[in-house]
Amino acid sequence: MRNVHPEVFLVARPQLDYDAIAAYLSEIGGSSWLERLDKGDLDNDALNLAEFAGRLCYRSWEPGLNPRSVLEHVSFSFALHNVSRVLSHEIVRHRPGTAISQESLRFVRLNDIPFWFPDWARADAELMQRATAVLEQLEQFQLWMADHFGLDAEGLPFHEKKHKTSFMRRFAPDGVATGLLWSANIRTLRHTIEARTDPGAEEEIRLLFGKIGELMRAEAPALFGDYTVQDGAWVPRWRKV
Ligand SMILES: Cc1cc2nc3c(=O)[nH]c(=O)nc-3n(C[C@H](O)[C@H](O)[C@H](O)COP(=O)(O)OP(=O)(O)OC[C@H]3O[C@@H](n4cnc5c(N)ncnc54)[C@H](O)[C@@H]3O)c2cc1C
After folding, report:
1. How large is the average pLDDT for residues 195-201?
2. Is the CB of 95 within 6 Å of ligand 1?
C-alpha cells in the first residue's frame, strides 16, 4: 500500500492569435478594442477570449456598450493526479462543457495500491491498522492472480493478458488512486466549483475542487474573483447555469 494525496495540475489553457483577431477586427471595424487591450491587458487570454466572444455577439467593441461575457468558449485542462475512483464516478456526472480521459486499470498492476487517507483517518490507529491489512490482502490476491494466470509468461497473447487484467481490476477498491485529464469550460467550472465544494459534497472531491478554485482564481481573477470561500465552500456572487 502506498500513501498518496489528491493533486491537480493545470496543464492546458487558451492561447489567442492576436494577429488573426486584429485582422478580423479590422474587417468589421472594431480595432479600437484591441488597441485598448494593447495598453496592458494582453496577458490574459482566457479573459480576452470570453470578452471577445461576448462583444462579437453584439458588435459592442466600444467602451461601456455591453459588459457581458461568454464563458463557454474558454476551456482549461487539469491533470487530476492520485484521485480515487470514487471521485472519478462523481466528476463524470457533470456532462456539458467537459472532456475526460481516464487511466486504464487494465494496464496497471495493483500489487502496490495507491490510496489516500484523510488526516482524521490517519489519526485513528486501529482504523489504519485494519484498513492497511485489507489493502495488503487485496495486493497479495493480485500477486497470486498474476502468477496463477501466468501474466508474465513469455508468449501469452496480448488479448488474453488484457482479458485477465480486466478481471483482476474488479478487485481494486473504489479508493484506489488513479489519474484523469479533465477539461472544462468556464461556465462548467463555475458551476462545478460551487457544487463540489458544497458542505454536502464528498470529502475528496471538496478538497480537489477547492484546489481547482484556487488555481482558477489565480489564473483568471476577473472570471473567478466573485466567490466567497467559507469553511471550504465556494459560493459565487453570480450564477448562470
Ligand atoms: C453534493 C452532491 C451530492 C450528490 N449526491 C448524489 C447522490 O447521492 N446520488 C446521485 O445519483 N447523484 C448525486 N449527485 C450528483 C448529482 O445528482 C448530479 O448528477 C450532478 O451534480 C450533475 O448534475 P448537475 O445539475 O450539476 O449537471 P451538470 O451535468 O454539471 O450540468 C450543468 C447544468 O447543465 C444543465 N443540464 C445538464 N444536463 C442536462 C440535460 N440532460 N438536460 C437539460 N439540462 C441539462 C442543467 O442546468 C445542469 O444543472 C450529487 C451531487 C452533489 C453536488
Report:
1. 98
2. yes
